[in-house]
């Protein structure tokens, strides 16, 4: 087991989970399991997350706001209620449009690089 | 690869994903990746999901409503904004309280039994 395992019986509220400022205009909260990890990202308007890839499979749920994603060379706009799938090693990035955005990023396996 | 892989470039809206009635008062929508799967469950007031377990690791986000969960013998109440972690093989069940509930269940690996 890696990371910070959660006691199974304990529900956690996003409101109680500390947010870490990981870059200008980007705050991240994390819930870490054994092979599953959820990150809640709050991003300012017009923030860019540069194109990158990782071996981890990812699904992203848009909780709030509007985003332009680029995944595997295709650009798509997404809004609250949309879900995106990023298979292993597919290059992806995102640009927030003109309002604050909240994203739920789900990974398997867990992002050890986020826990360093 | 198993299940119904999603084209990486295509965001999907929950509103466009068919809901399957899987039991009285329970509808399920699914987004299926390779090792990640998201199920969105809409459950009526007072519906019970009986205690069960599976080798898949699970995280559940409460999107709407109030639920009484039992996980590994511990009972806890949860509401919108709460996240629960169910490690592999831990027995869990839930009872909806007095309003409609929406849950986001995240699994790894995917629930092949849901795709039969």
Q: What does this protein look like?
A:
Chain A has 116 residues and is an all-beta fold. Chain A has one domain (19-114): Sandwich (Jelly Rolls). Chain A has no helices and eleven strands. Chain A has strands at residues 12-13, 20-23, 26-32, 37-43, 48-52, 57-64, 66-71, 74-79, 82-86, 92-96, 101-108. In chain A, strand 2 and strand 3 (26-32) form a beta hairpin. Chain A is globular and about 35 Å long. The A-B interface holds A 5-6, 8-15, 31, 33-36, 38, 57-59, 61-62, 69, 71-74, 76-78, 81-88, 90, 104, 106, 108 and B 5-6, 8-15, 31, 33-36, 38, 57-59, 61-62, 69, 71-74, 76-78, 81-88, 90, 104, 106, 108. Strand 9 (82-86) of chain A pairs antiparallel with strand 1 (12-13) of chain B, so a sheet runs across the interface.
Provide a short characterization of the protein structure:
Two copies of one chain form a homodimer. Chain A is an all-beta fold.
Strand fraction of chain A equals over 45%
Helix amount of chain A: under 10%
How many helical stretches of chain A?
0
As an assembly, this protein is homodimer
Biggest interface, chains and residues, is: A-B, 41 and 41 residues
Spatial separation of the terminal alpha carbons of chain A: 15 Å
CATH superfamily of chain A: Jelly Rolls
Give the strand order of the largest sheet of chain A, numbering strands 1, 2, ... along the chain. Answer: 2-3-4-11-6-9
CATH fold descriptor of chain A: Jelly Rolls
Specify the CATH architecture of chain A.
Sandwich
Query: What is the overall shape of chain A?
Result: globular
Poorly predicted segments of chain A: 1-6
Give the helices and strands of chain A as they follow along the chain: EEEEEEEEEEE
The main β sheet of chain A shows up as:
6 strands, antiparallel
Radius of gyration of chain A, rounded? Answer: 14 Å
Number of strands of chain A: 11
Number of domains of chain A: 1
Secondary structural class of chain A: mainly beta
Quickly name the level 1 CATH class of chain A. Mainly Beta
Q: Average pLDDT value of chain A?
A: 92
